[in-house]
Hints:
Blueprint: H1 2-27, H2 34-62
Helix pairs in contact: 1-2
Amino acid sequence: xxxxxxNWAAVALVGGFSLLWTGxxxxxxxxxxxxxxxxxxxxxxxxxxxxxxxxxxxxxxxA
Length: 63
């Protein structure tokens, strides 16, 4: 049981972090080149995609 709770907590933390990361990169960081900003946004999207993929696989496993 605790493993499932830990898995859900990890996925939620990664998903939340990805949204915060992307928001900070887009709105708070001003003096960076565009290619650096694009790479950082791509990293945030990668994290969000991983969290969505894990969420869907965990929901399929329990249903």
